Amino acid sequence: MSKVAIGCDPNANELKEVLKDHLSKMGVDFDDYGSDDPIYANVAFEVVEAVAGREHERGILLCSTGIGMCIAANKVSGVYAALCSDTYSAIRARKSNNANILTFRAWLLGPELAKEIVTKWLESEYIPGGCSEPKIQRIYEYEREHQNRNYGESYVRTIDG
Predict the structure, then answer these.
(1) Domain locations in the chain?
(2) Do residues 142 and 119 make contact, with C-beta atoms less than 8 angstroms apart?
(3) What's the CA gap between 117 and 106, in Å, rounded?
(4) Residues annotated catalytic, as ranges
(5) For a surface tag, which of 11, 54, 97, 157 has the fewest beta carbons within 10 Å of its beta carbon?
(6) CATH 1.10.510.10 fits 4-126, yes or no
(7) At what angle do helices 111-123 and 13-26 cross, to 10 degrees?
(8) Parallel, antiparallel, or unpaired: how do β-strands 81-83 and 58-63 relate?
(9) Tens digits of per-residue pLDDT, 62-120?
């Protein structure tokens, strides 16, 4: 496997350090995209753009709940992020859904479970041609068809309203 990208917000730095140690022990090469920015989306975009740009095969993102990182990650074309809090979901995220980004809820997972989830996710590979293939292809097709679509007055919130 090529390098893994990893990043988090300040709330998840402790678990990120645990996972970096775990990746090292597994012999997985990785780049740390940081943890100092309190705007988790900034770190998420750096990690997922590196994955979408094929600098890294996969990425791991952490924040307190994992939800914000997952939402931000899935805004980038070619990125398929999954929030996983158990090993079965991590395996299925790869094998059935070809997820290339794993997001974590640092405040709700213990370090041992987090390491197990990372291990299972990294050991799992997408299997083309399986029963999930038509489902995955439909997602890819939709993404290609709607990549540059302008929805006009879409549901985009700003601080001003």
Answers:
(1) 4-126
(2) no
(3) 12
(4) 63
(5) 157
(6) no
(7) 50
(8) unpaired
(9) 999 999 999 999 999 899 999 999 999 999 999 999 999 999 999 999 999 999 999 99
> How many Å from the N-terminal Cα to the C-terminal Cα in the chain?
44
> Which residues lie closer than 8 Å to 73 by C-beta, 6 or more apart?
44, 47, 48, 59, 61, 79, 81, 101, 103
Using CA of residue 130, residue 140, residue 53, residue 45, what is the dihedral sign?
A: negative
**pTM to 2 decimal places:** 0.89
88: which 2 tokens? Answer: 């079965």
* Tokens standing for residue 133: 């293939």
Q: Which two tokens stand for residue 136?
A: 């995955």
3-state secondary structure the chain: CCCEEEEECHHHHHHHHHHHHHHHHHCCCEEECCCCCCCHHHHHHHHHHHHHCCCCCEEEEEECCCHHHHHHHCCCCCCCEEECCCHHHHHHHHHCCCCCEEEEECCCCCHHHHHHHHHHHHHCCCCCCCCCHHHHHHHHHHHHHHCCCCCCCCCCCCCCC
- Structure-token pair, residue 119: 């291990």
Rounded Cα–Cα distance for residues 67 and 1 (Å)? 26
